[in-house]
């Protein structure tokens, strides 16, 4: 066991050298790093959000809202199809994901079935290049006496959820990009969740405000057939809704959307030239411009409402037809509100509301404190372990400490290379492995002592000690690895996973440093000293 | 040369005899732990219960927790806990889950932030909604169970089943005791705690496996040695290693506890306790429990199996007195391989045991394995 071929020696030394090389950029100051080649300079440990400060926000696409919207959409289509085909019906009702109705004349059943089935579309699967799974997103069935029911299928709803998540990710990215400077990490989690990680943000509240809004903009007419107060007393016309303004004032607004935010091509914050108030000016595409012109031509003198997510932002009176396809929204904004509204309008509306189901935000000062505390703990642990190991094993303890130093170096090198994130629990993992890393060394040294006690000569005892310890070291580390890997798999995306990563890397590197590297050092020492007696 | 040699090279501590004290002690601790779980329970953190945690730092010399509390109670946000966190300038505010929706929670958080005013900077906000927290509970339980199963499987594959069971019993014991500390001291139980528990699990197993490895090796080498003696020798042989590694790991967890910062304090305390208890259990539970799990000197087995038929043949028939002794020994020393000289606790069996040991010294292994056969 004490013989190393040249190639093996070289391989071990190269591994150590590479480890030092790739760990080095972590401790070099920025001025030195600037002169390094890019592949090396970038070899640094990525700090988790809990260390560098930032926000980790888990959003959930509101499945209920999505389902409700879809089922209402289908109901409207059913209405349109039956009207176009002149098929009489009654009792059109929506329950959960089912739409039911009764045909006036049961003889129309076959015709209605054929027409309504045209509404169903095949569900495209996201996997394997968008092939069809053969399932439809809607099933239509008939019962007795002209009863019909349309059922949204699970597969169809799931496909819708998938595309809603994809769309939302795109829109979130656009919104955050508008904030500038930050590099967000946005990814899908499971079927209906989106993880947004934004490092180093000074104002997480603003981020959440930007993410939490659906930003569905619509231009609708104000219904003047009665006052909003009358409508609130329960007699609202069926084609209108009572919506509230930012100040809590009620408005009676038509349900019909004249122009929607989808037709916007641009939105910019600015100031009203007359009263210097912050405003958002916008421009429609040709379709929107045409419809906006037609609406305003018909309704000069009447108020219309600019509605954002069911809230009336403003309800100005149309003084003259707006034909140019652009306009402005003024709603007693602050400058930042105007800015954010412009961002939201430019990025587009989310397909469904998002809710924040988990948030972890750490300010940069706490992160810096945590790093500092972690460093101190690591130094103290190393110091204590060093003194103890040298006290117990003397020279061999020194070998173990060199191995320990290389172990920590390799851990950082691997972490830098893999781009793994170092979190606060991850620092705990590093400190912990400083204590545990000497385990393999201790197992070996104790074995060597045992062999010497049984009467072997020094060199033979060393050799035998290494042989006998190998199995034990493997068994012990594999069991630890098993729990660490499970922690990694279960740890989700958060800090705990960071702990698992450092722990796993630590176990792997100790097996190399404590066994192979220590063995090489001792082999050299044996060659040089030819010891007759063990120093331990 | 080592400066100090305070860990004796040859220990001859009768660890197996210690089980008379350590088993009841460990059993009592485990039962106490379970009672605690059911009565006191855990101080579940927001990860598992949902809710919000806000860490804030005041620009004043120290935070006025009392005034803050009154201030927050005024705005009626339900369940609120405020405590100093680490330094007098830092406070930790915990809000329970409010309402069913995540939206309600967000509103409350904003209200608290407004109430804190400009004297405080918010250092950290963690908010977990009800759907996520229940998932985290499920995931964490799954992680622990999977961890145990994976390790059990590996040990079973590498060792005999008795070792696997012994290791699991020991590990579960360690986890219970660690959880007991969480329950007793009311430490926040959150995701980091799960990391701590799984790490302790890994550490405890690591420790146990090193000793088991030696026991297995000795079983092959010393075929005639009675099990308790063999176990004692193995534990003594690995004793210095166990103590040295526990000490270095203990240093690391202690350094984390004192210097690692407030956020990691619960984690490091649990780890420190886990290291101590893991060491104790390796020596005083993991090894001696093998005696009771019916681990036989494997050495005697293959030869015996070749010779002895599965059912006792005529040459295997013992005389009545001998048979009675065997049955007695089996009943009192359950699953014990050799009627070894280890004294039994009850008066009756101790005389019997003494008697059987006089003639069992040589044939103990043989008789034991026969006894085992007969049972099966």
TrEMBL record, chain A:
InterPro entries: SecD, SecD/SecF_arch_bac, SecD/SecF_CS, SecD_1st, SecD_SecF_C, SecD_SecF_C_bact, SecDF_P1_head. Residues 165-224 form the Protein translocase subunit SecDF P1 domain. NCBIfam families: 2A0604s01 (TIGR00916), secD (TIGR01129). Part of the Sec protein translocase complex. Interacts with the SecYEG preprotein conducting channel. SecDF uses the proton motive force (PMF) to complete protein translocation after the ATP-dependent function of SecA. Belongs to the SecD/SecF family. SecD subfamily. It comes from the Bacteria. This is Protein translocase subunit SecD. It is found in: Cell membrane. It is a multi-pass membrane protein. Keywords: Cell membrane, Membrane, Protein transport, Translocation, Transmembrane, Transmembrane helix, Transport. Residues 355-523 form the Protein export membrane protein SecD/SecF C-terminal domain. The chain crosses the membrane at residues 376-396, 426-445, 466-491, 503-526. Residues 242-352 form the SecDF P1 head subdomain domain.
UniProtKB/TrEMBL annotation, chain B:
The keyword Magnesium does not apply. Residues 336-359 have a biased composition (Low complexity). Its main location: membrane. Keywords: Cell membrane, Membrane, Protein transport, Translocation, Transmembrane, Transmembrane helix, Transport. It is found in: Cell membrane. Residues 329-376 are annotated as: Disordered. InterPro entries: SecD/SecF_arch_bac, SecD/SecF_bac, SecD/SecF_CS, SecD_SecF_C, SecD_SecF_C_bact, SecF_bac. Residues 360-370 have a biased composition (Gly residues). Residues 111-294 form the Protein export membrane protein SecD/SecF C-terminal domain. The keyword rRNA-binding does not apply. Pfam families: Sec_GG (PF07549), SecD_SecF_C (PF02355). Part of the Sec protein translocase complex. Interacts with the SecYEG preprotein conducting channel. SecDF uses the proton motive force (PMF) to complete protein translocation after the ATP-dependent function of SecA. Forms a complex with SecD. Part of the essential Sec protein translocation apparatus which comprises SecA, SecYEG and auxiliary proteins SecDF-YajC and YidC. Belongs to the SecD/SecF family. SecF subfamily. This is Protein-export membrane protein SecF. It comes from Xanthobacter agilis.
